[in-house]
Amino acid sequence: xxxxxxxxxxxxxxxxxxxxxxxxxxxxxxxxLTMPPSDKIRELRERVNRIExxxxxxxxxxLGDGHIVNTMIEDAEDIINYAAFLIKxxxxxxxx
Length: 96
What we know:
mainly alpha
């Protein structure tokens, strides 16, 4: 694969996270603005913990029907969005 191929693959992942953000924003609005940056850090940590727990299940041979992997991917997509929320708040000078 070329750098361009990897870049397209990377962009597809970012595009999926953006679609999730837009879809959920239509329902929830911009709730992320109501909580401080420290909330985003907590959410990021929680998602990493979830992914680690799921990875342990995979390593233990619990492959199932792909549900574990799909759940890990969803948590990783959430990480992308929570990281973007954190960056936006830090860029705005928000603290807490």
